[in-house]
Write a structure and sequence with these properties.
- This protein has about 160 residues and is mainly α.
- It has 2 domains: about 30 residues; about 130 residues, Cytochrome C3 (Alpha-Beta Complex), CATH 3.90.10.10.
- It has 6 helices and 5 strands, in the order αββααββαααβ.
- The strands form 2 sheets. It has a 3-stranded mixed beta sheet with strand order 2-1-5. Strands 3-4 form a two-stranded antiparallel sheet.
- A hairpin with an 8-residue loop joins strand 1 and strand 2.
- The longest helix has 26 residues.
- The radius of gyration is 23 Å and the shape is elongated.
């Protein structure tokens, strides 16, 4: 009787463990974006009161904003320069984060001004660019809760980087 039980347990474990591991491997496989590459998810606004934003950077890398009002239109083949719009003295795009030039505090004299001479701090620069692009493309969220996930711990997404 003990021998039959031992054989049965070995048989169940022999089939169960590989099946469980195989399912885990397939369920954690990276998804592909429209560009055919695995997503690179960036966490934004982790400490903000509206909640963390998980942004698929890789999925947007080749996208050029259709917004006719965009202050920094990108050229075909240089999609990155639409969002990361800093150009060196030699005319080469420099890919910086918003907060390199657009500072976090309202009233910071280093913040650039827009066409209407209004201060454009980091939050406003990102939101104006993002929402204008989403509305023009008629695709993606344009409301706060469409992006910001209240109550979601910042490290809940699998392959997440800052």
């Amino acid at each position: 009787m003990k021998l039959k039980l031992a054989v049965l347990i070995t048989y169940v474990l022999g089939l169960g463990i590989p099946a469980t591991l195989g399912a885990a491997v397939f369920s954690s496989a990276e998804q592909q974006t429209e560009s055919g590459f695995a997503p690179k998810i960036i966490r934004l606004d982790e400490k903000g009161r509206r909640g963390v934003v998980f942004y698929d950077h890789k999925g947007h890398e080749s996208f050029i904003s259709p917004d006719p009002e965009t202050p920094h239109p990108a050229k075909k083949g240089a999609a990155c320069s639409g969002c990361h719009h800093t150009i060196s003295a030699r005319g080469i795009p420099e890919l910086y984060k918003c907060n390199v030039c657009h500072h976090r505090k309202d009233g910071d004299p280093r913040n650039p001004k827009n066409r209407d001479f209004d201060e454009v701090m980091a939050e406003r620069a990102f939101h104006d660019s993002w929402i204008g692009c989403q509305r023009a493309a008629e695709k993606g969220p344009t409301t706060c809760s469409g992006c910001h996930k209240v109550g979601v711990p910042p490290a809940t997404a699998g392959n997440v980087s800052k």
